[in-house]
Amino acid sequence: MRDLGAWARVQAERLREGLAPDAAGHPAYVLAQAAKLAEEVGELQAEVLGQAGYQRRSKGVDFTAETMSDELADVVICVAMLAGSYGVDLGAAVAAKIEKLEARWSGG
Ligand SMILES: [Mg+2]
């Protein structure tokens, strides 16, 4: 598997290079990243609604395993980019969180 964190940091820099200077600095850029994450979560919500049959067919959008996969990936990528902007090692953070959750379930 590709190193998501390293790729996300490179991708964030590529995107930052296309922005005006006042939009590329901190905190403007992280606010934009957070807004983009919200946008992608909205797209995932629309996908879930579509998969569950709650989207109008007249929209003409197909909801498939591939479109679900794409929307889930968009959210994870946005989270990884935001994590990179804060210097968070997302893999380590998720591993630590899983340990806490497992301890909770095992009575630890
Ligand atoms: Mg999306």
TrEMBL record:
InterPro entries: MazG-like_dom. The keyword Hydrolase applies. Keywords: Hydrolase. Coiled coil: none annotated. GO terms for molecular function: hydrolase activity. Residues 34-104 form the NTP pyrophosphohydrolase MazG-like domain. This is MazG-like nucleotide pyrophosphohydrolase family protein. It comes from Actinophytocola oryzae.
